[in-house]
Amino acid sequence: MNDKKIELNRYDKRAQEILDNKNYEIKVPSYLNLAHNYYFNLFKKLNKKSKLLEIGSGTGDYTFKLIEMSFDVCATDLSEKSIEVMNKRYSQYKNFSSKIADMEKLPFNNESFDIICSAGSLSYGDSSIVMNEIYRVLKYNGIVIFVDSLNNNPIYKLNRYIHYLRNNRTKSTLKQTADINLINKYIKKFGEGDVKYFGSITWLFPLLKILLKDELICKLSNWVDRVFDIKYSAFKFVLILKKNAR
């Protein structure tokens, strides 16, 4: 069984558990809030009537905020069960639609969307293929926004490898986790981009939780990220791109 099939089965199983338990509550760990809050703030500056494509939406944990902002949201994922969960959550919203889609072969015409975004899904597809597909279906002067894990800090790389050894992730997702080199390729491909890094001390959170409340830990993490150059030590990054006309 190839890695894509393994990951598909894994996410189908998780989604089926949500369907069986009828538990659609969304919980996002507090240590992710800093990067994700910045990610969502970027959308506030964009035209709310834009056609927006979210790739690798999973069960839609980050989709609702985009729906709330009044974008015309098309949420996609390869997992049919994950799409079913999203439909249970959001099908009552007129500006929401969903589609089973492989991010390596998006089932859309060229230049179909004004905005394309992803929250934590880039490692589930071949980096070059995904980049070219996003470029293809994005309109000129369109915007791309990603929030995802960064693979330059050796501590976080080791942690991901341990998860691989425990069969919690596949080898291909290790290789495809975004790094600064990939970020630079995206900026070069699209013509214009800006990136911000977050969470250089996230690996310390389990220890800090013994001494401090989550709110103080997040403030400390934010201060470290702001004061020091954390480009190569970050846990997360947020990338915004613009597809320049040629």
How does this model look, in words?
The mean pLDDT is 92. It is built from ten helices and seven strands. Helix 1 (3-21) runs parallel beside helix 4 (80-90). It has helices spanning 3-21, 33-43, 63-68, 80-90, 127-137, 154-165, 171-176, 180-190, 205-211, 214-227; strands spanning 51-54, 72-77, 96-100, 113-119, 138-149, 191-198, 236-243. Strands 3-2-1-4-5-7-6 form a seven-stranded mixed β-sheet. The N and C termini lie far apart (42 Å). It has 246 residues and is of the alpha/beta class. The relative contact order is 0.15.
Amount of beta strand: 15-25%
Oligomer description = single chain
- Count every beta strand, where a strand is a DSSP E run of 2 or more residues: 7
Low-confidence stretches: none
Count, helices: 10
Separation of the first and last Cα atoms: 42 Å
In what order do the strands lie side by side in the largest sheet? 3-2-1-4-5-7-6
Mind summarizing the main beta sheet?
7 strands, mixed
Structural class: alpha/beta
What integer value in Å does the Rg equal? 18 Å
Work out the helicity level.
40-55%
